[in-house]
Automatic annotation (TrEMBL):
Gene3D superfamilies: YVTN repeat-like/Quinoprotein amine dehydrogenase. Keywords: Signal. It comes from Granulicella mallensis. The lineage of its organism: Bacteria, Pseudomonadati, Acidobacteriota, Terriglobia, Terriglobales. Residues 1-18 form the signal peptide. This is Photosystem II stability/assembly factor-like uncharacterized protein.
Length: 345
């Protein structure tokens, strides 16, 4: 599903301090793809064929060569393998959904896959390692599109199972942050939304579980999913047309996604991306109107607001997250400060 850009503001009374350091990437593209590899390397992508790369933790962002015939494509997802190799996914109707790959630090790109279904729309691309990856698309011909590669994107094989069956008028995935899908031990899970409600679909065994997110409208549901190998997981979303509404914007699981419960204290509005900081056992979620954190595996959330030395909007206008980076509209990029998620005494 295509998600339009929404910019809103909201102030919260109860908040933690320390925040994002805003970086300048010298672009006005709307950014929704971000993948941090660590060791100061990260890649980002967005509208108008935009791809960015940094090797110094965002002090400088390189503007990559635009892939062939991609000047008007919207690159919603990016997965990088090192400082030279990455695959980008564009989202759009039919053959506007494509995959390109670079192996020379984005000097050149090769088209490796194009959507052949005129009714298709790709939503998320995720790799577990250098070889195993999954590609998710909205339902076509009565079933979600889910394809797998085991050779780094050279070839793709579409998955077929009755558990993937869905009515496109009732269910769809959201291409808001490239995080509506999670992969673990070679198995994919992904989230959905729409007037039929929010669900998580899981492989091995194939199954689906309803998730208490959104309000069963076309613009609401599950927008981002993160599952840990130990069982806990978090899903966030809501209604992107009502970004200030906080009910049913987060849910949690303790059994790998088989069962879900609503968060007791929700984030302060619609959220498009969620990630887990393992060293300090803290979840962080972002959206157009703010940033929230949870230290109890998604049961309760509190706002992470700017410190007195930050710009007043440092917590807002975000689309996608790959710690320590966050990206948003108009070329907006933030780097999470080292002490932002530290326990407060």
């Amino acid at each position: 599903m295509r998600v339009p850009l929404l910019l809103t503001t909201l102030a919260f009374a109860t908040a933690a301090h320390a925040q994002w350091t805003i970086q300048d990437a010298h672009t006005t593209a709307s950014l929704r793809g971000i993948h941090s590899l660590g060791n100061s390397i990260a890649w980002a992508s967005g509208t108008d064929g935009t791809v960015l790369r940094t090797e110094d933790n965002g002090t400088h962002w390189q503007h990559c060569t635009t892939p062939p015939a991609a000047e008007h494509l919207d690159f919603r997802g990016i997965q990088a393998f090192d400082n030279k190799t990455a695959i980008i996914m564009s989202s759009g109707k039919g053959d506007l959904s494509r995959l390109y790959k670079t192996t020379d630090g984005c000097q050149t790109w090769n088209l490796i896959l194009k959507n052949s279904d005129q009714d298709g729309f790709w939503d998320a691309l995720i790799f577990e390692d250098q070889t195993t990856g999954f590609l998710l698309g909205d339902p076509v011909h009565g079933s979600f599109y889910l394809s797998e590669t085991t050779n780094g994107g050279k070839t793709w094989s579409q998955k077929h199972n009755h558990a993937l069956q869905a009515d496109a008028s009732l269910q769809g995935a959201f291409a808001a942050s490239n995080t509506s899908m999670s992969v673990m031990r070679g198995l994919a899970s992904f989230g959905s939304g729409g007037v039929g409600g929010a669900f998580v679909y899981r492989m091995a065994p194939w199954s689906s579980a309803q998730v208490p997110l959104g309000s069963k409208t076309e613009a609401s549901g599950l927008f981002s999913l993160a599952l840990l190998s130990t069982g806990p997981g978090v899903a966030v979303g809501g209604d992107y047309l009502k970004p200030n509404d906080s009910p049913r914007t987060a849910a949690f699981t303790t059994d790998g996604g088989q069962h879900w419960a609503s968060s007791t204290t929700s984030p302060h509005g619609y959220r498009s991306a969620v990630a887990y900081d393992a060293p300090i056992k803290t979840w962080i979620t972002v959206g157009p109107n703010g940033t929230d954190i949870s230290t109890d595996d998604g049961r309760n959330w509190r706002a992470l607001n700017p410190s007195p030395t930050d710009t007043p909007d440092a917590d807002k206008s975000w689309n996608a997250l790959s710690l320590p980076f966050v990206v948003g509209p108009h070329g907006r990029i933030g780097l999470l400060r080292n002490d932002a998620l530290a326990p407060h005494k």
